[in-house]
């Protein structure tokens, strides 16, 4: 499978950790009715987004974006050696992620910046690794960039009820003095900028790449499944504010509809990357082939 996209002076690599079944469509998407699922089952299965039991197929991946100035990793997936309630994530010890990095010609020391669209468990896991019984930053030369709204939200949550992913995958980075807590419109050089896209979490951001234009955008958990492009009002059950998530999603899709911006989704099935096009009262994310 080709996993590289070349766009002018930037190169994007997909780093896949897992691509697998997740939850039944009717469970993950409370606004999805059996009737609407019936109408969309055929094309969802045809693109690999839905299995024979109507369980959604999701990809869990990072994007590594090379600009003329930086090598930036967005969303660090699940990670190893961490206690998690989901069986396929719990205390993992495989080398899939590191092999995927190596296949892209990268080692952990090559990453200059780690950015997180938000601080959920499957977007921060490889921020840290276990070394001699303690959590240390996985990418030793990187600065880790966290949006302030998101960081403050989870800091407050963790102070009330311990949040394991925050404790083992975010705070050790802060304690190692590798973290930058930044404004929600933060820019890095002339090729990278954050765009606040709240709803899934209070401080969720998309990451936009390109000099003077939006060549590509990593959308994070703004949407989990392609059916949400057809029906932007459908929010997932994990969205902290489902109405805000729906409004943010439609605004995002309108912004990039019928443009050449490459939308790099967090969880859509492979190839995961496409261009937003209008389809009736909704949209589609039309897949774009990677470079061979």
Please provide a written account of the structure:
This protein is an alpha+beta fold and 292 residues long. The chain has 8 helices and 16 strands. It has helices at residues 25-28, 34-46, 96-103, 148-160, 164-169, 171-175, 227-230, 242-256, and strands at 4-7, 10-24, 55-66, 71-74, 113-115, 128-131, 134-137, 143-147, 179-182, 187-188, 192-196, 205-209, 216-220, 262-265, 273-279, 282-287. The protein is globular and about 50 Å long. The chain starts with a strand and ends in a 5-residue tail after the last strand. The relative contact order is 0.17. The model has no long low-confidence stretch (mean pLDDT 97).
Strand order of the largest sheet: 1-2-3-4-5-8-9
SS content category: alpha+beta
Distance between the termini: 8 Å
Parts with pLDDT < 50 across at least 5 consecutive residues: none
Percent strand equals: 25-35%
Number of strands: 16
Q: Given the C-alpha coordinates, what overall shape results?
A: globular
The helix/strand order is: EEHHEEHEEEEHHHEEEEEHHEEE
Q: Which whole number gives the mean pLDDT?
A: 97
| CA-based gyration radius | 18 Å
User: How helix-rich are the residues, as a percent range?
Assistant: 10-25%
Main beta sheet, described?
A: 7 strands, mixed
Number of helices: 8
Would you kindly provide a brief summary of this structure?
Helix content is 23%, strand content 30%. The protein has eight helices and 16 strands.
